[in-house]
Amino acid sequence: MDDGIPTTEQLVSDIIEELRADPDTDQVLIDILSEHVVKMDPKSSAVADAATLIENLARQRGEQDL
Amino acid sequence: MTAPITIESLDIQGFRAYLDSQSFSFRKGNKPSSLAIFAPNAKGKSSLVDAFEYFFSTDATLERLGRREAQSQAGRTALAHVRAQEKNVSPQVMFKFRQGSEQIKETRGIPSSGGLPLVAERVLAATKVPFVIHGYDLRGFVEASAEIRYRELAAWFSLDPLLSVQRNLRALQREVKGKVDSQSEADERLRDLRRVTTGEVSSWHEPAICEWFNTSILSALDDSLTLEEISETDPTYSMLVERKEEEDKQVGLASMDTLTRQIESLSTTAMHDQGTDDGLLASLEKIISDYESAVAEEANERSKASQSVFNDVWSKAHSLLEMDGHEFDSCPVCDTEFKSTPHGSPHAVLVSLNDKLGMLAAYRDADAKLRAATERATKGKETVASALDSLGIGLSDAGHGDCADQCAAYRGELDLWTLGQPLPESRELLQALSSVHTLIDTARQRLVAGQGESTYANAVKSILELLQIKADLGRIHRFDKEHQNLNEELVRQANSIETAIVGHTRQLISQLETDVNSLYQSIQGTAGVENPVTILLQMSDDDAANQQQVRLVIDYASNRQGVAPTGYLSDSQIHSLALALRLAAIRTFNTDAPIIVLDDVVTSYDADHRKCIASTLAEKFAGFQILVVTHDEQFFNLLRDHLPQSGWAFRRITNLDPDFGPVFADHHTSDEEIDSKLADGITAGEKIRQAEEEWLLKISREFGVSVRIREIERPYQYDRSELAGALAGFLKEQKLAPPAMPGIANSFLDSLQSGVVENFVSHFSDNPYRSSSVGDERTRWTEFKLFRELFVCPKCGRSRFSRPWQLKKPVCRHESCQTPFEFQATLSTVGDPP
User: Mind spelling out the 3-state secondary structure of B635-654?
Assistant: First the structure.
């Protein structure tokens, strides 16, 4: 294959890094996505785990808004 | 970069059409080579392709056979040669591969024990695209649905993890959105609001709630008071709390509540509202129980460590014996030999010292625990005593003198009690306290009921509930807002990720598309032609869900752009397109194991297209090892013409011998094989016949004998008698008479012509009913070898001949010899037959 085209693993890593570099990106959320969903070998519970973490994050931020 | 995996050889036995072991080399000199095999139908050529498919099958079968074998004798049962068991042949397929300097050999038996061979796993890991291409299923990819095509491409491009990312991202967005949209928690709190406001207010609108409170609750108590907001800072709320306390005092509720709390703090869990904590009396019982355990443990450890006076001695002896580099035979203090002690060695003494010092450590721990337990027990006793004193005063003031006396009595018992004695029995006191608790509770309820609805206590209670609902709704609102923000950010990030993945996939597919067009033009022979048909692999531009589709279309003409190939291309063109797709994919993705197996892929082509395929393989797949099997002789000959002899072997199957397997034109049955069988007393009749036929064909070819062209049936195989007759006729014509062989009555050539050797028995006896034996075969074999050795160059003794067309007699083939062939007059060099 053309060497200019990244491997699948490299692509996943590049996507995450590019999003992280964006100042508008919610860094905690991208951490959750990269830890659970946007990875080469996600767990079978990846979606449920990520959804719970997002919910907890919303709750935590809601408390901080007081 | 790792070296590519190449095939060295393939050996088959007892598998499909192959009964006896046959070997196929994929190496010429020290380089990988390719192999083209031609055979008419049903001669066993596909068995070679089957060997590849079987070796790399995760199910240990062939796709067309399936896995089921019960009843039908099909499935895996059909993998083994039907006579393998009878002939005691172990069915197996053996491959030798090479990767760099590493040679890997592995055999897969039939049935297969265990999983995929390790080397097969390695090859499959290096090949993204299936490398066995059957002509009959080539069109599948062209005619598949867009989704299936995408899945296949995704597997080739190793996109499965990306598909999983896309799938999970979509599922996550659905899940988060579902939770964001859910109002269940807020709804629950609004139900509470409706309950508190007796159905008057159903949404959080604070002025309306205050209005309800002022009208329904406050006006009955004091119409000068007005609640402005549901807040603890509202002056009216503070006022209501003060009045509630005043009210409690007036009706005696405050003292009742204090007394109730005191009883509950002393009593057991059964009397607590929460039911979670033990009362002080129960806690004391537990503390005393722990204390008793600590006492027992300390006593136990103390007895074990009774020799603690030796602690210092043991410690020093331990240090001494542990010193590195010192081997003591006897005690350094008293000179006692270790071997004469009960322990027997310094090491055993050291182990014993470790035990003893360990016991001392355990004792120290137990002692510390006991001290802590003692302190807790003392403090617990003081706490209970203090609580009993306070409660006694409260009970006495409230008129429960008897119970107060019981408290005082228990307090007295507790004063007298010392650690180590059983704790004074508290059951009677607890019963008395329980009775008083019930009495107070009943009196309290009666008082509250006597107050009616319009009390400050009820007003404060309503406000407290409203405050909790307000706090909860505020928290829920903030959570919802944050959840919504996160959901929006999730959608944004997911879209970015999706876009990147789709862009990557498009890029990969575009790269493949270029190669497919190049190969298609090459196969079709239209390279360089103006406006050729262009093949397009298009991903959908629709929403994310439809992006996992790849349409295969063609630009057929200026007014037929992006049309389905099946509507415009001929059958053979579709076949070419399918072949181009598979070959392009293999060329793109299988560089780590450049292997291709082409099984009858030219069925629907004319001569020009066959030539184009041969050229394409030569020009575009020079770095690949290819096995081509075909029943198309013209294609086979074209391959011979176009492909470099240095990197290719070309073999023809001439016959399928049910007792042997496919017989190749260049097949040579070795003398050693037959000698070995005969030496072992195993019948070699079939092999002897085969060796005779092979030699007959060779000598007939080299002598240039004339064979009459046969009728169309059986065009690929000469009969032994026909060759023997032709050879005999030629020798006679050239006046080349074989010398008589000592001890043998009949002429060997005559026997071949008359066919009597078809039954070895008849060769030696006129009795047609006599059965054959290994001895007969051994005799026949010796006789044949003697006869064969007559055909040597009279000058140099070599056995290869040729007969250029202008010569009548064959000549020695060796360039420096070329002596005309003559039989030698005697058989002196041959020796006598046994």
Answer: HHHHHHHHCCCCCEEEEEEE
Give B483's contacts in chain A (Cβ within 8 Å): 54-55, 58
pLDDT of residue B834: 34
Closest CA–CA distance from residue B498 to any residue of chain A (Å): 10
Domain B1-127+590-665 adopts which CATH fold? Rossmann fold (3.40.50)
Report phi then psi at B626, rounded to 5. Answer: -125, 135
Q: Which two tokens stand for residue B449?
A: 């009921």
**Partner residue opposite A54 with nearest CB, options B176, B500, B508:** B176
Give the residue extent of every domain in chain B. 1-127+590-665, 252-454, 668-784
Q: Highest mean pLDDT range out of B341-345, B465-469, B824-828?
A: B465-469
Measured in whole angstroms, how far is the alpha carbon of residue B578 from the centre of its chain?
Answer: 30
From chain B, the residues in CB contact with A33 under 8 A are 169, 490, 493, 497
pLDDT of B268 reads 60
Contact between B493 and A29 using a beta-carbon 8 Å cutoff: yes
What is A25-39 written as a DSSP string?
S-HHHHHHHHHHTSS
Higher pLDDT, B787 or B118: B118
Q: Is A19 in contact with B159 (Cβ distance < 8 A)?
A: no
Question: What tens digit of pLDDT does each residue of B307-329 get?
Answer: 666 667 777 777 777 765 667 77
Kindly list the residues from chain A whose CB atom is less than 8 angstroms away from the CB atom of residue B480: 58
Instruction: Report the distance separating Cα B170 and Cα A33, nearest Å.
Output: 12
Which residue is listed with tokens 């389905």?
Answer: B564
Contacts of B172 in chain A (CB under 8 A): 37, 47, 50-51
- Per-residue pLDDT at B165 exceeds 70: yes
Tokens (6 digits) for B299: 């006593």
| pLDDT exceeds 80 at position B551 | no
In this prediction, residue B768 has a pLDDT band, given cuts at 50, 70 and 90, of very low
User: What's the mean pLDDT in B243-251?
Assistant: 80
C-beta atoms of B481 and A9 within 8 A? no
pLDDT exceeds cutoff 60 at B208:
yes
Q: What is the mean pLDDT of residues B579-592?
A: 90
Show which residues on chain A lie within 8 Å of chain B, measured between beta carbons.
1-2, 5-9, 11-12, 14-15, 18-19, 25-26, 29-30, 33, 37-42, 46-48, 50-51, 54-55, 57-59, 61-63, 65-66
Measure Cα distances from B664 to B656, B658, B660, B791, B797 in Å.
Answer: 9, 14, 11, 24, 28
Mark yes or no for CB contact B511/A1 under 8 Å.
Answer: yes
Is the CB of A40 less than 8 angstroms away from the CB of B511?
no
pLDDT, mean of residues B745-751: 60
| CA–CA gap between residue B512 and residue B507 (Å, rounded) | 9
Closest chain A C-alpha to B472 CA, distance in angstroms: 11
**pLDDT for residue B234:** 94
pLDDT of residue B277: 57
Select the more confidently predicted residue: B444 or B619. B619
Q: How close does chain A come to B511, measured CA to CA in Å?
A: 8
B653-657: long-range contacts (C-beta < 8 A, 24 or more apart)? B653/B37, B653/B38, B653/B39, B653/B40, B653/B43, B653/B44, B653/B45, B654/B43, B654/B716, B654/B717, B655/B43, B655/B716, B655/B717, B656/B17, B656/B42, B656/B43, B656/B44, B657/B686, B657/B690
- Among B158, B486, B509, B589, most A C-beta atoms within 10 A, so best to mutate, is B486
Whether the CB-CB separation of B85 and B669 falls below 8 Å is answered with no
ipTM value for the complex: 0.96
Residues of B whose CB is below 8 A from A40: 161
